[in-house]
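Methods — Computational structure assignment.
A single polypeptide chain was analysed. Its primary sequence is given first, followed by the predicted tertiary structure written as structure tokens.
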Amino acid sequence: MKPGGCLCGAVRYEIQGELRDVVDCHCSKCRKFHGHYSAYTSVPVKDLKIVKSQNLKWYDSTKDETAHVSRWFCSKCGSSLFWYPRSHEKISVAAGSLDEPTGLQTMAHIWISQMGDYYKIYDDHPQYKRGRRNPPS
């Protein structure tokens, strides 16, 4: 069981099962939502249990390629917690919201075609112009 939650503790969750290693997303939407690029792991929805949810809210995207996505966050402290494409079996979990130790490591960068102009990527992980279904750059 891997626990996690928001900054203020108003939202807590537990994950049963294995987490995928982390993918860093550099798309403009993640940068707006997180204030920088995002770092997500993922797990089957059935393996996520919300144990404290009094301030759990979500924003449903309504345009572009994310029209089917919900972004879940704490309405008290603003922590971003989950990215959920509603038609999928998996939910993405903000890696920084997991309690340590996570045992995870970064495995790839996606949407580098939209990355901010104020930083560079210095590691040697695969980089994808769009999602991981496209060939690396």
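Note: The first strand starts at residue 2 and ends at 5.
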